[in-house]
Amino acid sequence: MTAPAAAARAATAGLVLLLAAACTAPAPPRSQASTAAGTACSQPQGRPGAETATTIDVIEQAYFCILGNYYGGATLDARSLLTAGFAALTQQLNRDGRDVPEATMPALTGDRKADWAAFETSYRKVTDQVPGLRDKLAVVTLEAIVAALGDDHARWAHDVERPPGYYDGDGYGLGLEANVNGPQVQGNPGAALAPLFVATVPGGAARAAGLRPGDLIESINGSAPFIDGKSTPAIAALYPRYPQARPVRLRLLRQSTGRRWSVTLKPGLYQRDLATLQVVQSKLLDDDVAYVRMRGFAPDSADRVLKAISRLRTGRTLAGVVLDLRGNGGGSPKEAIRLVSAFAHGKATAHLCTVDDRCETLRTDDTVPLLDLPLMALTDRGCASACEHFTSAVKDLRLGLLVGTRTAGVISGPAQPYLLGDNTTLNFPTRRHLGPGHEVIDRIGVPPDHHVPLTAKDAAAGRDPALAKALALLHK
After folding, report:
1. CB 212 within 8 A of CB 263
2. Which phi and psi (to 5°) does residue 401 adopt?
3. 463 or 3: whose pLDDT is higher?
4. What is the pLDDT of residue 8?
5. Read out DSSP for 5-28?
6. Rg of the Cα trace of the chain?
7. What is the rounded CA–CA span in Å between residue 463 and residue 476?
8. d(CA 167, CA 50)
9. Which of 86, 123, 185, 188 is most buried, judging by how many CB atoms fall within 10 Å of its CB?
10. What pLDDT digit, counting tens, does each position of 175-196 carry?
11. In whole angstroms, what is the distance from residue 137 CA to residue 92 CA?
């Protein structure tokens, strides 16, 4: 259920210059403004064209698109979206030192169309005073409107670009993964648990600086990652996205030696290990356990898992399967259903429901042959979206045991893309996801049957307590 990419190919230099000029041109009167955006939205057919400037008309289109198609749109207080958008606009004016007297929030009544008209009038008065900021103000306003939904599967995909020198498969960032991972920071940060420590070091600046798994992160840019046991926004700095390039200063403690030191890491491109690029990896453990690591529910990934198990099963009797879903950020719900179907037939795997509880039941694909093997699924806070579709079905239908920690709680519903007039896409769920028993998983996650967290000492020693527990359970 990961939202589809919406980036267009980079425009030619000449076109970029033309668009930049268009961004600073005075806004035309409403009667003369382009009606290309309109207020209707539809799902894209093929690849969108080159991205153009975001305007107030595009913001209007997005606003009414959300109200008309988002699963909670019918009951949403639209004033919250407009207030968030106007707040972002004024904050950007302040950051640029260009605040203007006209930047006051209009009175809103709850009438969606009338409130939009009042918002647009005030917005145009402001942006006409600062034409050089018009494009930037439109972007932050629309970003804030989408963020106000508070939905982990709602986003506006725009201005997506890759770093210079990027090669397919490269990583970007500091080159480390902490026990509080990127998807959790963005989708469910309140569930993060102290202490913060380095879990893996795939490359980049972190590897060059000598960081190791198990190193405690005591501060980030001078701020504590946890205060009174609650995570702080400082953790997000560990996961910069291009073009973010501001150096990040970490204060670290290596428990094994007592060494404390500080290091400054600059985000950048780094080459990832080829093994980490494989969606599915498999091997035999203890001579009779099929271990399969699945990093995402990409197209055809369920069949790749099943083929891997079949190969490991050839010529031997397996005691069971360990399916490692830690760090699996999700993907296609169809793949989740197909994988569940290898362990059960004739069952509901999930329900997709409207705000007034009209639901479509998703059921197993009974053409998939049953494996008839015991299942242990390893989970953590990185297991999100389609991964939670699968794990909730495993738990509810008693198809196996979950070992590790609770999943991310990032599964509001499958996102649908809508094309906007500037050739960007708006993505959000039209129905919310519920588990097989109609339980809410979003923001809550799926609890493990055996709670086995990774500690900093485990990471430093290269131990995997969750895997060890799963093997012990299979051999009981």
Report:
1. no
2. -120, 145
3. 463
4. 36
5. P-PPPPPPHHHHHHHHHHHTSPPP
6. 24
7. 21
8. 22
9. 123
10. 999 999 877 787 778 888 999 9
11. 7
